[in-house]
Design goal:
The chain is an alpha/beta fold and about 475 residues long. The chain is built from 14 helices and 17 strands. The strands form 5 sheets. Strands 1, 4, 5, 6, 7, 8, 11, 12 and 15 form a 9-stranded mixed β-sheet that branches. The relative contact order is 0.20.
Length: about 475
């Protein structure tokens, strides 16, 4: 027997034969009941569903898509949205041991002998009907507080950057699990055949921790569900353009031949990654026409440039990525992830966080307003937040105009806006030091369960069997925070 025939015979086990035969008999029975055309429609919906496995979801969705504005590095809740006037009277005094002992501290303060509490040097005011307190660093965001659902009682289990980012994005501190966008792509598929289900864009503030691309990886899910990174410059998606001298018709013929070879391998081995490769080749071909149009902002009116700020004209900036996120939302991309680095201020926090706010505040607010004026906020969920918070005591020396803050998993602030969440509310409370959650805690898995609920998914029922275990985004925890739902 030839080696290829031997491989084929090995792949066609009795179990495979019975499985395929059963499907064939079931299809013939269904055909006799429904008729040929009805059978084709029903099987097409069940098998393809634009690439998703859930059909229409477990219940009606309130959101069709998500734009997640991830502020990488851990923004200080004390300088942004969690106003703590009590820290003013405690400023410079040692944090009580009874408070500090309730949370882990990172190794970066292990040699520190004094832990003086420090109040923010930035002023806060109340805004909107909700009366939400917002730092002076965010004047544009302050103007949209009545559209925001601010959650001050987030908490996590990770104390260092990469595990914390992985935990928020994948539900596990260990790298290699599928990210939120990959789960949604796997479960719900795509509403646009010419763009990926899951798009990622990055921008960089001053310094900060590097990003691991596994944060938007597909893990053990088929690889065509991973995030596709859009970059600044002339080639937004690497290796998408045809090589010099290769015509589009030649590329099409080459892909057809490659597809035929891959389909032959798929029939022989049944490896789902071969199907992913076929999907990725076809998506890349369709993206050759759709991506240049999507990233072109030259036809935007002047008032849009003014709304997003001057940086919107510079490729690779946070403002430019926010505008592109709106364009992707208009084209029904399911999950749009923006990462902006530079929020890791262990020292020099007053200057560093001001720079970060200047980079992001105007464009963030503009995105929410832009979606709202186009009617897209009704079915788009916008999320803003990082991987953890910062300590209320100073890391390093405290001076009159300078201080730093260490990582703090015990409490941090995120906000959401748009489809399905209550607008104009502030949820949860921390203690007077912004050190511990004292009311309505929201664990990272609770947050993940809630956003999946908004897209019509029961987080306990979207699973994938891998190495003998059924995995899900929320692991074995998490509940929907119904108080956040409109």
């Amino acid at each position: 027997m030839h080696s290829s025939e031997q491989k084929k015979s090995i792949s066609q086990t009795r179990r495979d034969f019975l499985k395929k035969s059963g499907m064939g008999l079931g299809a013939m029975a269904l055909s006799s009941l429904l008729g040929g055309e009805a059978l084709a429609n029903s099987l097409g919906a069940a098998i393809s569903n634009n690439g998703g496995v859930l059909g229409q979801g477990h219940f009606p969705a309130k959101a069709k898509r998500i734009i997640y504005l991830f502020q990488s590095g851990g923004p200080s809740q004390i300088e942004t949205f969690d106003y703590k006037p009590a820290l003013e009277k405690w400023h410079g005094q040692e944090i009580p041991d009874s408070i500090r002992g309730t949370q882990r501290n990172s190794g970066m303060v292990a040699s520190q002998s004094t832990f003086p509490l420090v109040s923010s040097i930035y002023n806060f005011k109340q805004y909107g009907k909700s009366g939400a307190c917002v730092s002076e660093l965010f004047p544009h965001t302050a103007q949209i507080v009545d559209d925001l659902c601010i959650v001050r009682s987030m908490y996590t289990e990770a104390i260092n950057h990469e595990p914390a980012v992985m935990f928020v994005q994948t539900g596990s501190m260990i790298s290699g699990r599928p990210s939120i966008g990959s789960w949604l792509s796997y479960g719900l598929g795509s509403d646009n055949e010419n763009l990926p289900n899951f798009v990622v864009m990055t921008s960089h503030g001053g310094g900060g921790q590097p990003l691991n691309s596994l944060a938007w990886g597909s893990g053990f899910l088929p690889s065509h569900h991973q995030g596709v990174q859009f970059r600044s410059g002339e080639e937004p998606v690497l290796f998408l353009n045809n090589p010099h001298g290769v015509h589009a018709n030649d590329r099409r013929r080459a892909l057809d031949r490659i597809k035929a070879f891959n389909e032959h391998q798929l029939d022989m081995w049944g490896d789902p990654e071969i199907n992913s490769k076929i999907n990725q080749y076809e998506m890349a071909f369709r993206m050759q026409a759709s991506v240049p149009e999507t990233v072109d902002i030259s036809n935007e009116p002047d008032y849009i440039y003014e709304m997003y700020g001057e940086d919107v004209k510079k490729p690779g900036t946070y403002a430019r990525n926010c505008l592109l996120a709106r364009k992707l939302a208009e084209q029904d991309v399911k999950f749009i992830q923006l990462y902006h680095t530079g929020w890791d201020q262990h020292g020099g926090l007053p200057r560093g966080i001001r720079h970060q706010a200047q980079d992001t505040d105007q464009a963030t607010a503009a995105l929410v307003k832009d979606l709202k004026q186009r009617g897209l906020l009704d079915d788009t969920l916008v999320i803003w937040g990082g991987e953890f918070g910062r300590t209320s005591f100073s890391q390093g020396k405290l001076t009159a105009d300078n201080y730093g803050r260490d990582h703090h998993p015990g409490c941090f602030t995120m906000w959401m806006a748009g489809a399905g969440v209550k607008p104009g509310i502030v949820y949860g409370e921390t203690d007077e030091f912004s050190y511990n959650v004292v009311k309505d805690p929201v664990h990272v898995h609770d947050f993940q369960a809630t956003l999946m609920h908004l897209l019509g998914i029961d987080h306990e029922r979207l699973t994938y069997k891998y190495q003998g275990r059924r995995f899900r985004l929320t692991d074995v925890h998490g509940h929907v925070v119904k108080d956040l739902l409109a």
